[in-house]
Automatic annotation (TrEMBL):
Residues 3-441 form the Transposase DDE domain. InterPro entries: RNaseH-like_sf, Tnp_DDE_dom, Transpos_IS1380. Coiled coil: none annotated. This is Transposase DDE domain group 1. Pfam families: DDE_Tnp_1_4.
Length: 452
């Protein structure tokens, strides 16, 4: 083959044409007014607004580059600024310093924008379960590894590394992030203030959709305070995995067998049987409000394994209990099967920390890293919405066209990093992409889709 030579050109060519979709979504006058009103700075000829700084950071997060130094790659790139709608791209130093100057109250601006963003796509927030439409909200802690750093708030986590332990919440069947909270690495899942975070999350969900909410948490959030909070919340149901602590599993087995009339139980495999049951239990802890509920329903599944799957008997038999606080009237079997699907939320954590590379947060200051996590939430949702929009076109190539959702890695690789050529002519700004690219058709169709 002939030797290929490289030459420089003054024609603006970009390897991240998809950032234009991010810029369009961030072109929100309410967001601009909120940020400019909260983070105003003296103007001069070298002034870079806080709004432009935040847009630049969200742009970096959208291409999987959360570190401040990464902005240096785009300072001389006119497409980056044009696509995101910013006047001047900040330097790494300016990016860091400007975010450090932002007040803590900026988190309210980010959450307000995120609420408006998700409320504009109500069809992605709900799913039909047992004859009713629900907005399911999965909440969980997912530690972030920040080992060998001296960042504020980094501590030993339950995953046996140094880092943070943020609380993350996702709404709907496609995994849109509704809320987050950065926490010290040593913080427990139910650390003080968790009930206030749940209340904030449910209030945000109420502004997003008129359908009933269904909050799902693991045993780390098993507390009387949370159960009472969920029971008081209007149009909200819940499933909270029970922390059985030191309770005797044999007692649960005896109760389950009794409620099933002494039957042999459901066949699990050659060496195990399972029984389902339910009971009304007094909610633990003390409440100062006389009208607070005193009891709540617990449903459970008890599994007795008396032999391994190869038929070898076990002495003694192993008894495991899965129990759930719930306000639903579903059967114990239905609730257990529903909770098993919770594992999908672990994939959402992976997409945030691996696909977007948001794990080693860039700042040494805790407050700044909370802002970065908030901007990551916005970038996460914009990428998710773009992926679902392309699937909606029916033009996504290959086996991914049959997917329920596109992984963020797929969106970043095929949309964010799509090559294009910037053309400015007759007061129009156009990004041209190669018509032979396999993802060109869904991208063009996505550009034609109406908002929402």
């Amino acid at each position: 083959m002939p030797k290929i030579q490289f030459e420089l050109t003054s024609t603006p060519i970009t390897s991240h044409a998809g950032l234009a979709f991010i810029g369009q979504a961030l072109d929100d006058p309410v967001l601009a007014n909120d940020i400019n009103g909260l983070c105003s700075l003296p103007r001069n000829k070298n002034y870079i607004s806080t709004l432009d700084t935040i847009k630049a950071m969200i742009g970096l997060l959208s291409v999987g580059k959360p570190q401040f130094d990464a902005i240096a790659e785009y300072r001389a790139d006119p497409v980056f600024a044009t696509a995101l709608g910013i006047k001047k791209t900040p330097s790494p130093e300016t990016l860091r310093q400007r975010l450090e100057q932002c007040p803590e109250s900026l988190d309210k601006v980010f959450r307000a924008f995120n609420t408006r963003l998700l409320a504009a796509h109500p069809h992605l927030l709900t799913e039909d379960l047992h004859g009713q439409t629900w907005a399911v909200i999965h909440c969980d802690v997912s530690p972030m590894d920040n080992s060998n750093s001296h960042k504020e708030g980094v501590d030993w986590t339950y995953k046996q590394f140094e880092g943070y332990a943020p609380m993350l919440g996702y709404i709907g069947p496609y995994g849109l992030m509704i809320n987050n909270e950065l926490r010290n690495g040593s913080a427990h899942s139910n650390t003080p203030g968790t009930d206030a975070w749940f209340k904030q999350t449910m209030d945000m969900a109420e502004r997003m959709t008129s359908h009933k909410r269904l909050v799902v948490t693991d045993s780390g959030n098993d507390s009387g305070v949370n159960v009472r909070l969920f029971m008081r919340q209007k149009d909200t149901d819940f499933v909270v995995k029970c922390n059985l602590r030191n309770q005797d599993p044999q007692e649960w087995l005896d109760l389950a067998v009794k409620q099933n009339g002494g039957a042999d139980g459901e066949y699990v495999d050659i060496g195990a049987r399972a029984w389902y049951g339910q009971k009304q239990v007094q909610i633990p802890g003390h409440s100062d409000t006389p009208d607070d509920p005193k009891t709540c329903r617990i449903v459970f599944r008890v599994t007795k394994r008396f032999a391994r799957t190869d038929g070898q008997y076990m002495f003694p038999a192993m008894i495991t209990v899965d129990a759930y606080w719930t306000s639903l009237d579903w059967t114990p079997e239905q609730i257990h099967e529903f909770y098993k699907q919770r594992g999908t939320s672990e994939q959402y954590h992976s997409e945030l920390k691996t696909d977007m590379d948001v794990e080693r947060l860039p700042s040494g200051k805790f407050r700044v890293n909370q802002h970065v996590l908030d901007m990551s939430m916005i970038a996460f949702n914009l990428l998710r919405l773009a992926g679902q929009g392309m699937l909606k076109t029916g033009l996504v190539p290959g086996r991914k066209a049959r997917s329920k959702r596109l992984r963020l890695r797929t969106v970043i690789q095929n949309l964010m990093y799509m090559a294009g050529r910037l053309v400015q002519h007759a007061r129009k700004t156009i990004i041209r992409i190669f018509e032979g690219h396999g993802w060109a058709e869904p991208v063009m169709a996505l550009n034609r889709l109406p908002d929402g």
